[in-house]
Specification:
- It is found in: Cytoplasm.
- One of its GO terms (molecular function) is magnesium ion binding.
- This protein is about 45% helix and about 10% strand.
- The protein is α/β, with parallel strands linked by helices.
- The strands form four sheets. An eight-stranded parallel barrel has the order 3-4-5-6-8-10-11-14, surrounded by five helices.
- The radius of gyration is 24 Å and the shape is globular.
- Helix 5 (about 110-130) runs parallel beside helix 6 and helix 6 (about 155-175) packs parallel to helix 7 (about 200-220).
- The chain folds into two domains: about 30-375, Alpha-Beta Barrel (TIM Barrel); about 380-430, no CATH class.
Length: about 425
């Protein structure tokens, strides 16, 4: 045992507790729509923000002092020790990592691989001793200066090769640890200026990279899901995986729409000019919904601030779309969220996750109540009821412009607008949140 979380006991569901280190709404065994709450939400802790982030921002350096900060394997193992102690306190069923979060950076690819393999074995022992499972692993192909112009889309084939080799080792690590998914997180797959960019070439490179990932998944027998995380404007100005629709277009172009799904982050949805529920609903409609990163932005900053969720109505609308789509399969709710740089204490890290889990629990229950009530779905069905007629269906299956124009003329069709009733629907949602 380390001393970092000394004196902090595992959190319990205690709605009336006076202490802030307790769950007031998250009860993992509570049954919601016939399923345990834990099994609906499938919470995961992000290794990078919880244990690797140092508390810096663009105008100031590290504010956190953690005993595991450093670049040795001993410190990486200490970080893992502390991580699993926090997992025991929170009791969440999953965690997620990038390779650079769990292993020190080596002098070259070979040393990176040795470091990764050693720490994966160490983490595997902790998982076998009763720790949480791995929701997904991923490779960091954006922080090191070698990736300043991207990985898959880099103009230098050696960087492409280094990135592909790194993904292979991370897929191996994820497979070895029994991960439910593998995520491709293209933080710099885009461009800054067209003056030095060949869009067609970079697009083809990205498509081949994705195809190789899928090929390797099947070769090693990884039965998890490959996920792409849409990334608008962060940090590359013109990002190739801007939003769910953009990702789907890429997958469709390269014949991967049945092989790859999306991991959607709330903060990224906002940066793309969408709502979180829009991106989830779009992914579900296209058949590529996989998993989510649950966080929020500061709406005054215009940047992805990765704050823990605290807005129940927003979260409820997101979970409504997830439940409406049938819930998660291999995915889950990962807290891609970090403390504010002034929140220095170990207890702050526990309280942040506990509060976020409570917010999600409240949102899930509100979403389930809306779905059970059925009012929204009834009104949605009524709005489109006209499409159930024979004539309407014929327009979609065998209609032509000529035949439709003939019917409009023959039947003197002259439709009047029908209210969308948005305010009444918003009032209906407010009954539950």
């Amino acid at each position: 045992m380390t001393a970092f979380f000394e004196g902090i006991a595992p959190l319990a569901y205690a709605p009336d507790a006076g202490d802030d280190l307790a769950f007031r709404h998250y009860n993992p065994d509570e049954i919601v729509l016939g399923k345990r709450m834990e099994d609906h939400l499938r919470f995961a802790v992000a290794w990078w923000h919880s244990f690797a982030w140092e508390g810096g921002d663009p105008f100031g350096g590290r504010t956190f002092e953690r005993p595991w900060f450093g670049s040795t394997m001993d410190l990486a193992k200490l970080k893992a020790d502390v991580a699993f102690e926090m997992f025991a306190i929170l009791g969440q069923p999953f965690f997620c990592f990038h390779d650079v979060d769990i292993r020190p950076e080596g002098a070259d690819f070979a040393e990176n691989t040795r470091n990764l393999e050693e720490i994966v074995d160490y983490i595997g022992e902790k998982m076998a001793a009763g720790g949480p499972k791995l929701l997904w692993g991923t490779a960091n192909l954006f922080s090191h200066r070698r990736f300043m112009s991207g990985a898959a889309t880099n103009p230098d084939p050696d960087v492409f090769a280094f990135g592909a080799a790194t993904v292979k080792t991370c897929m191996d690590a994820t497979h070895k640890l029994g991960g439910a998914n593998y995520v491709l997180w293209g933080g710099r797959e885009g461009y800054e200026t067209l003056l030095n960019t060949d869009l067609g070439r970079e697009s083809e490179q990205m498509g081949r990279f994705l195809s190789m990932v899928v090929e390797y998944k099947h070769k090693i027998g990884f039965d998890g899901t490959i996920l792409i995380e849409p990334k608008p404007q962060e940090p590359t100005k013109h990002q190739y995986d801007y939003d769910v629709s953009t990702v789907y277009g890429t997958l469709k172009r390269f014949g991967l729409e049945n092989e790859v799904k999306v991991n959607i982050e709330q903060g990224h949805a906002i940066l793309a000019g969408h709502s979180f529920e829009h991106e989830i609903a779009t992914a579900a409609a296209l058949g590529i919904f996989g998993s989510i990163d649950m966080n929020r932005n500061d709406y005054q900053s215009g940047w992805d601030t990765d704050q823990f969720p605290n807005n129940v109505p927003e979260v409820a609308l997101a979970y409504y779309e997830i439940l409406r789509a049938g819930g998660y399969t291999t995915g889950g709710t990962n807290f891609d969220s970090k403390l504010r740089r002034q929140s220095l204490d170990p207890a702050d890290l526990i309280a942040a996750h506990a509060g976020a889990m409570d917010v999600c629990a409240r949102g899930l229950k509100a979403a389930a109540a809306m779905l059970e009530d059925g009012g929204l779905e009834t009104r949605r069905a009524a709005r489109y009821a006209g499409w159930d007629s024979v004539e309407a269906q014929e327009m979609l299956t065998s209609g032509t412009l000529e035949s439709i124009a003939e019917r409009v003329t023959r039947e003197a069709i002259n439709p009047a607008p029908v209210s969308g009733q948005q305010e009444r629907l918003e009032n209906w949602v407010n009954r539950f949140v």
